[in-house]
Specification:
The protein contains 4 helices and no strands. The chain has 112 residues and is mainly alpha-helical. It has one domain. The relative contact order is 0.13.
């Protein structure tokens, strides 16, 4: 029990109103941030498995497998490994920034 739930109950708010107005808005922000971080971790995990050869097999494209194959050509064709790694970085960064932005929007403590 939190103070704001007790205060809402003392003002005569029903159970559904307490859940949807007071509890869920405080839970939405951490859930969104956790989901966006987990999406980035899933992308890194899939790329790691692909790099080790345990991911999707050719002819299906996978960033981790592209980096693994590009390792052999690194001195001459550096871009063969660079761009898949860059796209992994940008995708994970994008999910993390999206989660941070949604947290700023959804966090009820920052509302005026």
């Amino acid at each position: 029990n939190s103070i704001y739930v007790d205060a809402a109950r003392s003002m005569g708010a029903g159970k559904m109103r307490i859940v949807f107005v007071h509890i869920l808005p405080n839970c939405a922000s951490p859930i969104v941030v956790k989901a966006s971080m987990d999406m980035g971790m899933a992308i890194l995990g899939a790329a790691s498995l692909g790099f080790l050869g345990l991911g999707a097999q050719p002819p299906y494209p996978e960033w981790g497998a592209m980096i693994s194959v590009g390792r052999n050509y690194l001195p001459d064709w550096w871009w063969y490994s660079f761009f898949p790694g860059l796209f992994i970085f940008l995708t994970v960064l994008g999910f993390n920034l999206m989660g941070d932005g949604l947290r700023d929007i959804l966090d009820p403590r920052h509302r005026e």
